[in-house]
Amino acid sequence: MTRPMKTLEFKLERAIPAPAEEVFDAWLNPETPGTPWHEHEKLIFHPKVDGLWYWLVRGNPHYGRFTDIERPGCIRHTWMSRDTLGEESIVTVTFEKKGDATLMTLVHSGLPEHDFAKKHEAGWSYFLDRLVGHFTA
Predict the structure, then answer these.
(1) CA angle 25, 31, 36 (to 5 degrees)
(2) N or C: which end of the chain has fewer CB within 10 A?
(3) Domain enclosing residue 130, as ranges
(4) What's the total number of domains in the chain?
(5) Three-state DSSP class for residue 133
(6) Is residue 1 part of a domain?
């Protein structure tokens, strides 16, 4: 009998000085610096429910499928890569109005408990910080 694999979950939050609609739209726009879709060697990107995406960065392929898109509140998609050990994980990004700003929360769940998967926390922090920089520049 095999034991279920332990999984990791990362939750990151950033306050972004813009309306939720703008932040939501920026996150789905590959032309916006700060989104993972902006930095790529190759990108296939169909941001709609059941739309597939493929993102190649630094020789590392990532891929998945959009499962939920509710403007301006939530984007959810699957995420697979070498660093997930081929296991499907889930990325949920929410956008909540906080005064004149938006609280953007990214939760990456279902990652295998492995050193490779732990790198996702630093990767997502990098992109979220760049997105904040885009809106504060």
Answers:
(1) 80
(2) N
(3) 8-136
(4) 1
(5) helix
(6) no
